[in-house]
Design a protein that fits this description.
By secondary structure, the protein is mainly α. It contains 14 helices and no strands. Helix 10 runs antiparallel to helix 11. The N and C termini lie far apart (53 Å).
Length: 240
């Protein structure tokens, strides 16, 4: 099979649906002159799995595409490559570098979520985490979302320190899409160390309401009710 960006996009076109195009156009939050082919996510993922051996130069060509589904395919291919059992650290570095260098093309919440944990988080698992703190302070919402979403992989390995620190940096963020990611990270932290999660939540003077809801989702009902009640003055998205 010809593992090129052109063939990948031609393959996606065989699944095109006007109904799906309308649906995707409604939830896409990115900017720029993005075009939507109209392909169900399952078909995009399945196609990406078939093209998982695509050279990184062609993956970058997909990232350069104006089509949303092509960029979703690109980050999916990066994720599939990161999952390989015999991947070397050098190969993992190449995936990480491409993601970070072309973050300008990773411009929607689902593009970040599809690849950041394994492509960014897994690479940094045994390395300094300074790049994530730089992303957390970025003016770009998607870079900030990468910062917290990448920590999901650390949490999965029982490493929660950076997730809590980065969550703390992002508590004052003005974007609801960041509040949700922070809340999700905190919820996962609670699965590893409930005591530390509860202590973290109680130490905050104000939390975005959506963050608190997500963070307490898996806590015992009485404890969750207590924390939600204590957070009745929590900020709503977009307010100071």
């Amino acid at each position: 099979m010809d593992l090129t960006a052109r063939v990948f996009i031609d393959t996606l076109r065989t699944f095109q649906s006007d109904e799906e195009r309308t649906k995707i156009s409604k939830y896409y939050k990115g900017g720029g002159k993005t075009e939507v082919i109209g392909v169900r996510m399952k078909n995009t993922f399945d196609t990406a799995a078939r093209f998982a051996g695509m050279p990184l130069a062609e993956v970058e060509a997909l990232l350069d595409s104006p089509y949303y589904e092509a960029r979703m395919g690109a980050v999916s291919i990066l994720d599939f490559k990161a999952r390989r059992k015999r991947i070397t650290d050098e190969e993992r570095r190449a995936l990480y570098d491409l993601y970070m260098e072309r973050h300008d093309r990773i411009d929607n919440w689902d593009l970040v979520d599809r690849a950041a944990p394994r492509v960014v988080g897994w690479y940094l698992l045994d390395k300094p985490r300074a790049p994530l703190y730089e992303l957390a302070r970025s003016a770009d919402i998607w870079e900030r979302r990468t910062a917290i979403t990448a920590t999901f992989w650390f949490i999965r390995q029982g490493d929660i320190d950076d997730a809590l620190h980065i969550a703390g940096l992002l508590l004052d963020d003005e974007e609801e899409l960041i509040h949700k990611s922070v809340g999700t990270a905190l919820r996962e932290v609670g699965k590893v160390d409930q005591e530390r999660l509860v202590r973290f939540l109680r130490e905050q003077t104000a939390l975005p309401r959506v963050t608190l809801r997500y963070a307490t989702e898996k806590l015992p009902p009485e404890l969750r009710a207590e924390l939600l009640g204590a957070g009745d003055t929590a900020r709503s998205p977009g307010k100071g």
